[in-house]
Write a structure and sequence with these properties.
The protein has helices spanning 15-31, 62-70, 72-79; strands at residues 2-12, 35-39, 53-59, 85-94. It is α+β, with helices and mostly antiparallel strands. The protein has one domain (2-94): Alpha-Beta Plaits (2-Layer Sandwich). Helix 1 (15-31) packs antiparallel against helix 3 (72-79). 18% of the residues are buried.
Length: 95
Amino acid sequence: MKGYWVCIYEKINNTEKLKEYALKAKPAIEKFSGKFLVRGGKNRTNEGINSPRIVVVEFSNYKTAVECYDSTEYQEAHNILNGHTIRHHQIVEGN
């Protein structure tokens, strides 16, 4: 079964830091053959928090999704967001 990152942003305090993060995160994700299925765009909140940004990334399997998140390359990118966003990030298994 495939693995997915589902990331729901609650608040973005610094869009420049988000851009810096994205530039560094993309090659880390691609190293693990991650494929962006959703990256921003129009959305409608039906329940829960109103989110300014949603990202979904598909990986070949759950283990690879976890390995990518835990990788040094991705964690270096992730650290750029510290104090600049509030987000909910999950790794889930699915079809």
